[in-house]
Amino acid sequence: MFSPEGPRLSELAVQALSSVERGYDLLAPKFDHTPFRTSDSVLDATVAALLESGPYGTGLDLCCGTGAGVDVLRQVCRDSVTGADFSTGMLEVARSRRRPEGPDTSWVRADARVLPFGPEFDLVVSFGALGHFLPSELPGLFAQVHKVLRPGGRFVLPVVAPPRPGSLTHAMLLGFDAVMRVRNAVWRPPFVMYYLAVRFGDLWHGLENAGFRVAFWPLPEFGRRRDGSPRVRLVVAEKGARRAPLTS
């Protein structure tokens, strides 16, 4: 699961016993060599879908980490791109990465639950960050995203179909979540990172309750499951009306 350039087991143990912020500060130099980073295949498929649905002017990568989502935005936004994260270490790595010509890019240290922006973005994306928020925090998070989008702006995030209950993958993720719950019950500060805490229906209804109109765009590159549902799709939440219709 980890490349030779990735963190050692001892480093992961120290990170897991830290706060989320401190843990990612420590992990940042090796984060891109872990399975926690969103795969290039998902990033590329997201770019393709957004290029078809644009154009977009300004973009925000929420919980940007080392900037992989910023690189997505730089391919689909014309005016400017912002990466926001509360880990100083992750932002330092993101800033240091060399990038080709593109729109102006800025980096902001910010808590996603209290974003320091007004309604100035046409597109907000987030990759692999929802597991760092408790279900009770999602309404506030979605309200923050709604606040920083212009009318007609979109909040887009890829979601992978959950593993079938009883499968090995489901058992592994369930076990991981159980270990994290025990860790957080006996150790402070907490490290919030769960894979199965946010259910698809809760995500859908939470976005609608925040004022979004929600659609789901299958990413055909990943095929479909036996029941016909997409293996990977984009959740596309729109604020208000937009020139192009929102289709699924």
Automatic annotation (TrEMBL):
Keyword Transferase carried by entry: yes
Classification via CDD domains: AdoMet_MTases
Name any Gene Ontology BP term.
Answer: methylation
* InterPro entries reported in the protein's UniProt record: Methyltransf_25, SAM-dependent_MTases_sf
Task: State the source organism's domain of life.
Answer: Bacteria
Pfam families xref list: Methyltransf_25
User: What GO molecular functions are on record for this protein?
Assistant: methyltransferase activity
Methyltransferase domain residues: 60-153
Q: What Enzyme Commission number does this protein have?
A: 2.1.-.-
Q: Which UniProt keywords apply?
A: Methyltransferase, Transferase
Q: Which PANTHER family match?
A: 2-METHOXY-6-POLYPRENYL-1,4-BENZOQUINOL METHYLASE, MITOCHONDRIAL, METHYLTRANSFERASE
**Entry protein name:** Class I SAM-dependent methyltransferase
Biological source species: Streptomyces thermocarboxydus
